[in-house]
Write a structure and sequence with these properties.
There is one protein chain. It is built from 31 helices and 13 strands. With about 775 residues, it is of the alpha/beta class. The protein has a domain of about 200 residues: Rossmann fold, CATH 3.40.50. Strands 6, 7, 8, 9, 10, 11, 12 and 13 form an eight-stranded mixed sheet that branches. The protein has a five-stranded mixed sheet with strand order 3-2-1-4-5. A hairpin with a 4-residue loop joins strand 1 and strand 2. Helix 3 packs antiparallel against helix 4 and helix 13 packs parallel to helix 15.
């Protein structure tokens, strides 16, 4: 019987081995199939084949190879999250394999992925580790060394450290010259861009000619088309350099046209529509700059066609936007609006995963997204000026406002990178139906003028001011800087200039409607300043109107609050911890507020994440007051509030405040009384503006910069006294009264003390 069992066991083992060999053969077949599809630019087909290969469970080493291939394909398609997941899995696999060469290969690709989303530090760390690992290998892996050095050069070029980047590219090209001509060319093209950044025009011209000569020797594959495309863009940049002679610029221009056309011609037979679309689109862009509109239209139409053929929305929106600019240049407003609307519609579906080019940092939100929506808004505002009747005029004005609103929503999504914005939109209430004595100001800083849309009731009033976006930004930046210097009133010139631009033209309309509250929906640099400190030459704006802000019309839920029997949680940190200074007035501040409101108190050692969570779980607090240091940064990862032992990041705050969201009484007011944002950093101010949206609170009262904590204590104490002891008073008016009370004290007259307090979100 034992022999029988042994025979059965051996048969099973043999069967498993045969099955494993068969799976391995099938896996190899799918890998080869995917490689061929990828070389031809058919990335979706390549992904399908490689996914099949991965599902057949090949050896761990081969899993890594397939995962790296898949990650590269997903990155090409702009699906960054999938790319990162695969690379993370591959890196973990290399740890179990103890395979330094494969680990270096994964690190090289990982560096590329980090760079594609703008994380230069992570990209450099991984490229450096890959280069170090490969330098220690014996025998050397020249192919992997070349790839790692090219990736390292890409990061160094972005830093920028052009000298070391150029050295890395030269080494990569030399190592890859005989075995990997495609990689050698890629490194040379990257070096060509670095030479231009350094202003080495003669060297750049010589290298461009050499690259074009080498490209002509390559077979018509996807990587050849991609190399022609990148070379064309480098030549185009060279053609616009004023340091070159007219003849040299003309030569570079001819090289641009030749390279881009060759990219399209190489990609067409293999049906690589994405590369074709990019090549034709960039040709259209070049003719647009030359104001040769007929040729620009021709190539732009071709670019749109091929982007649609391959279903590449992240490319398509760019050429739709380009078409809109071309129609605008021809004064064909209706066609321009239609093209811009198409671009906006396409963009809205892909702006979280824009794939923007050839191994470079993505363009910023301000370069890739904002101009599309603002261009459309400008056209709609122009159309409204010529509307045949008031009904159509109001409709066009609302379309313009809603178009800019999409920028605000997209920007917050881009900043927080989660679902909090969608949730806020679902709960929002239209601001068109608010109190008739409240006006909403919607500043729209266009390139050549400022448009302020004033909403009172259901009517929009447009006001045009002859100030460019650049002028506005400069004055706003100076205003913010000077406002924080308590020893002088040098900010007054900027305070009055901004008043003249944003408020004075609106005054007759505001006075006629008996408006007493202004709600600002600021954008860009305007988020960094307190509107309360604008000045008409006699008084501050806060002395004339209650003031509130909101990050977007569609992100606010204005409704009166019944404060009766409301529960209040008071949190404070007076001790100096984690490198931050002490806040000695915090105990007094909390005691004063507690005397007015009652409520639970967590101070110093009793203020931890755990105690905060426990309190929110057991009691439905309407108000959470946090007297603790807070930092708002352009990077949400560096935005946090301080607890006694650790930092409370925005995701933590969202989770904690969210504990009360499904109760009868969610958190209506979150007060942050000691936070700050960097001077002139509108992205950091965006984080502050969006904190109510992120945290899930109805409104937030916070400070733009750190204020003397005695002054802070007086303002917030008066605010709660006004809010809870006066029936029917709004949060905006309660804050106004507290600020005016402080500014009337001689010692605190300067707006550095009372100005930075902002009410964000529901002001009622």
């Amino acid at each position: 019987m034992l022999h029988r069992y042994l025979f059965i066991f051996c048969s099973v083992l043999l069967s498993v081995q045969i099955s494993s060999v068969q799976a391995q053969m099938n896996s190899t077949h799918f890998v080869t199939q995917g490689d061929q599809a990828y070389q031809e630019g058919h990335w979706e087909t390549a992904i399908e084949a490689w996914e099949q290969a991965l599902s057949l469970h090949p050896l761990a080493a081969e899993q890594v190879d397939v995962q790296v291939r898949l990650a590269a394909a997903y990155q090409t398609l702009g699906r960054q999250s999938l790319s990162f997941q695969l690379l993370d899995q591959a890196l973990k696999n290399t740890e179990t394999l103890n395979a330094p060469a494969r680990r270096a290969q994964v690190l090289t690709h990982f560096s590329d992925a980090w760079l594609s989303i703008g994380d230069v530090k992570a990209a450099l760390n991984m490229a450096d580790e890959a280069v170090t690992l490969l330098a220690e290998l014996a025998p050397p892996r020249v192919d992997l060394q070349a790839a790692a050095l090219n990736a390292q050069g890409n990061v160094l070029a972005v830093l920028p450290n052009y000298l070391q980047a150029s050295q890395a590219y030269q080494q990569a090209a030399q190592l890859a010259q005989h075995t990997q001509p495609n990689l050698a060319l890629k490194a040379q093209i990257n070096q060509l861009n670095v030479l231009q950044e350094e202003g080495q025009w003669a060297a750049a011209q010589a290298l461009l000619a050499e690259v074009l000569k080498d490209l002509a020797q390559l077979p018509p594959r996807q990587h050849t088309a991609a190399a022609y495309l990148s070379t064309g863009l480098a030549a185009q940049q060279l053609s616009r350099q004023p340091a070159l002679s007219t003849a040299q610029q003309a030569q570079a221009r001819q090289q641009t046209v030749m390279a881009l056309q060759q990219a399209a011609q190489t990609a067409l037979p293999i049906q690589n529509h994405r590369t074709v679309s990019l090549a034709y689109g960039y040709l259209g862009q070049m003719y647009e700059r030359d104001q040769r509109l007929k040729e620009a239209h021709h190539f732009t139409r071709q670019a749109i066609f091929h982007a649609l053929q391959g279903a590449y929305p992240e490319v398509l929106y760019r050429w739709q936007w380009q078409a809109g600019r071309l129609f605008k240049a021809e004064n064909n407003t209706l066609a321009a609006i239609s093209a811009y609307q198409a671009a906006g519609k396409t963009l809205s579906s892909v702006q979280q995963r824009l794939d923007v080019g050839y191994r470079s940092i993505p363009p910023s939100f301000d370069e890739a997204v904002r101009p599309v929506y603002y261009g459309l808004a400008a056209l709609l505002l122009k159309q409204a000026d010529n509307a045949p009747n008031e009904s159509i005029r109001q409709s066009l004005l609302r379309q313009a406002r809603d178009t800019v609103e999409r920028v605000k929503i997209a920007e917050l999504q881009n900043y927080f990178n989660d679902e909090c914005v969608q949730n806020a939109q679902q709960e929002a209430t239209s601001l068109d139906s608010i109190d008739p004595h409240t006006a909403v100001l919607y500043p729209i800083p266009l390139q050549d003028e400022l448009v302020v849309l004033l909403s009172i009731g259901n009517t929009l009033h447009p006001f045009r001011v002859a100030v460019t976006a650049a002028q506005l930004r400069d004055v706003v930046t100076l205003f913010r800087q000077r406002l924080q210097t308590r020893s002088t009133f040098r900010f007054m010139y900027e305070a009055q200039s901004l008043y003249d631009w944003l408020i004075r033209p609106l005054l007759p309309t505001l006075q006629q409607a008996q408006v007493d509250t202004l709600v600002f929906v600021p954008d860009g640099s305007l988020r960094t300043i307190p509107f309360s400190a604008l000045h008409d030459g006699q008084t501050f704006l806060i002395e004339q109107f209650a003031v509130a802000t909101t990050p977007g019309l569609n992100l606010t839920h204005p409704q009166p609050i019944n404060w009766k029997d409301s529960h209040i949680l008071l949190i404070g940190l007076s001790d100096g911890v984690q490198g931050y200074s002490a806040l000695p007035n915090v105990p007094k501040e909390l005691a004063s507020i507690q005397q007015i409101t009652g409520g639970e108190q967590l101070l110093n050692q009793t203020y931890t994440l755990e105690s905060f969570k426990n309190n929110l779980e057991k009691t439905p607090y309407a108000v959470v007051h946090m007297a603790t240091h807070g930092e708002f940064d352009a990077d949400p990862e560096h935005t946090y509030l301080l607890t006694y032992e650790e930092k409370l990041h925005m995701n933590d705050l969202q989770a904690l405040i969210g504990l009360s969201q499904y109760r009868q009484q969610p958190v209506e007011l979150l007060t942050l009384s000691a936070c700050k944002t960097a001077v002139g950093d509108d992205k950091a101010a965006l984080g502050l503006a969006g904190v109510a949206v992120k945290a899930g609170a109805s409104s937030v009262m916070a400070t733009l910069w750190f204020v003397d904590d005695e002054a802070t204590s007086m303002v917030v104490t008066d605010f709660y006294k006004n809010l809870l002891s006066t029936s029917g008073v709004t949060k905006a008016k309660a804050l106004q009264q507290a600020q005016v009370t402080l500014l009337k004290r001689t010692h605190y007259r300067h707006p550095a003390y009372w100005g930075p307090f902002l009410l964000i979100g529901n002001w009622l």
